[in-house]
Write a structure and sequence with these properties.
By secondary structure, this protein is mostly beta strands. It contains 2 helices and 16 strands. InterPro entries: Ig-like_dom (IPR007110), Ig-like_dom_sf (IPR036179), Ig-like_fold (IPR013783), Ig_sub (IPR003599), Ig_sub2 (IPR003598), IgLON_domain (IPR050876).
């Protein structure tokens, strides 16, 4: 009887398998991100990271992203393969946190006795919270002629019955734990002349936010 060589039995093929991988991550914009994916199998498997958003591939167990930007927030897939069986895959989700950025501001005309809307939209992670102020720093509060409607990424000032007292400058503040930004806009009577224009202001810290608002008020006096 023929004898088969012992080596044919000593090293059987083993499908590639991921045995350890990074957990989902939540980081701040500008942080460095390091992901790992460890795999076993026989023959030794390859490990590849795939970027779903842009389709980029990176060879090796480790994926390093330097100073991550908000547009890089996505799922990354680790793929390991050694040709014995279908590849083993696993995904890691990376969330990138950043302070609010107000994306659009527009002055709005309005007629007395009619309805009107001022809009404030902000992109942020975590989601921004909103507050509205009049030009004299008074917080805007809902009443029977004005309602504040906050949605996921925007806040609306809904004027259900415009009166003379409603005309003027409104400032929207959008904030989360990473910072804040503000924007000013006018509700105006068509044909009226106002000195101000809709404006977007940069990111502010909690203290700087009130400082800038105070300076703005002083300049108008």
């Amino acid at each position: 009887m023929d004898c088969l060589h012992p080596s044919l039995y000593s090293n059987p093929a083993v499908p590639a398998r991921i045995v350890n991988i990074s957990q989902d991550k939540s980081v701040n914009e500008g942080d460095d991100v390091n992901l790992f994916c460890l795999a076993v199998g026989r023959p030794e498997p390859t490990v590849t990271w795939k970027d779903f958003k842009y389709g980029l591939m990176s060879e090796g167990e480790f994926l390093e992203i330097t100073e991550i930007k908000r547009h890089q927030a996505e799922e990354f897939e680790c793929i390991t393969n050694n040709g014995v069986a279908p590849p083993d895959t696993h995904r890691v989700k990376v969330t990138v946190n950043y302070p609010p950025v107000i994306t659009e501001v527009k002055n709005m005309p309005a007629q007395v006795g009619k309805t009107a809307i001022l809009r404030c939209e902000a992109m942020a992670v975590p989601t921004a919270s909103f507050e509205w102020y009049r030009d004299d720093r008074r917080p805007v509060e809902s009443d029977n002629t004005l309602k504040i409607k906050n949605e996921k990424t925007r806040s609306l000032l809904l004027f259900t019955n415009v009166t003379e007292k409603h005309f003027g400058n409104y400032t929207c503040f959008a904030s989360n734990r990473l910072g804040a930004s503000n924007a000013s806009m006018l509700l105006f009577r068509p044909g009226a002349v106002y000195g101000g224009a809709a404006s977007l202001n940069g990111r502010l810290s909690g203290v700087g936010l009130w400082f800038c608002l105070s300076i703005s008020v002083l300049m108008k006096v």
